[in-house]
Amino acid sequence: MATIFRLQRGGRKNRSYFRIMVADSAQKRDGRFLEEVGSYDPLTAPALIRINEASVLEWIAKGAVPSDTVKSIFRRHGIFAKYDAILAGQDPDKLQIEIKTEKAKKPHLSKKAEAKAAKAAAEV
Fold this sequence. Notes:
33% of the residues lie in helices and 27% in strands. The protein is of the alpha+beta class.
């Protein structure tokens, strides 16, 4: 049984949030899971990420592999650096890891909305 970290979607249409789960690789995205190890809310600026580091490090030691998105989340929070420190026999709590936050996304207007805004500005 291969275990992986993956995101499980929640929320309603256009208001999604995700839970970071450890699951068997044969299970569906929103199917059965072994443990919830965190959450990810991409709609807040910056994105709100909550991770149970002790549980994540335990599962990585057991051989769980993160998906691409979860891997980038773990990298930003320094999970892999802490795991490497544990393997090297160092204390991971003494590491100076800077958590990288996401940049605020600029609002993107469609061409139709830009044309409508330009027309409204020209009338005024």
